[in-house]
Design a protein that fits this description.
Elements: E1 7-17, E2 23-26, E3 33-36, H1 44-50, E4 58-63, E5 77-81, E6 95-100, E7 103-112, E8 116-120, E9 130-141, H2 144-149
Antiparallel strand pairs: 1-2, 1-3, 1-9, 4-9, 5-8, 6-7, 7-8
Bound molecules: zinc ion (ZN).
The site of zinc ion (ZN) has 5 residues, from loops.
Length: 161
């Protein structure tokens, strides 16, 4: 079955900084991830590379920032009260979750003070050319419920409480 809109894809991936070759993330040794094709659940450049592939396919693709996490913005450092952080390991360089009015956001800690923290609001992968090595595990038709929710359920998909 080919990957197209409203089919659920499970896949493993390794993600590298395309410029340095450093591995940034990998799903190897963990559960495969699932997404509902054509619904914007993954970054656009990666989604496009899945189109038309089948279960068992392996491919590599390099995605520019514009099709991934966007460009890096200079002057994106902000000083934020410590109480806004859900994460306790506040050390420079740590990637932590920040609660914002627009929902949770991933930021990088720059400097930690007594009651405030300076964070870089750029996504940690902003401005990077990303190389993905992907193995397609399986492809299936989405259920009506998945289509109405706009995301995949089941193994590797969205879990509802
Ligand atoms: Zn759902």
């Amino acid at each position: 079955m080919k990957i197209e809109k409203d089919r659920v894809v499970r896949f493993h991936y390794a993600l590298f900084d395309a410029d340095t070759g450093a591995e940034l993330e990998s799903s190897r040794g963990r559960d495969a991830l699932a997404f509902l094709a054509g619904r914007g659940g993954i970054i656009p450049g990666l989604e496009a590379a899945f189109e038309g592939k089948e279960a068992g396919a392996s491919f590599e693709t390099t995605v520019a920032p514009e099709q991934a996490y966007g460009p890096r913005h200079e002057n994106a450092v902000q000083r934020i009260p410590k109480k806004h952080f859900t994460h306790s390991r506040l050390v420079p360089g740590a990637t932590v979750m920040l609660r914002t009015d627009q929902g949770p956001r991933v930021v990088v800690v720059k400097k930690v003070g007594m009651s405030v923290v300076d964070v870089d609001l750029n996504h940690p992968m902003a401005g990077k050319n990303l190389r993905f090595a992907v193995d397609v595990v399986d492809v299936r038709e989405a259920t009506a419920e998945e289509i109405s929710h706009g995301h995949a359920h089941g193994d590797g998909g969205h879990k509802h409480d």
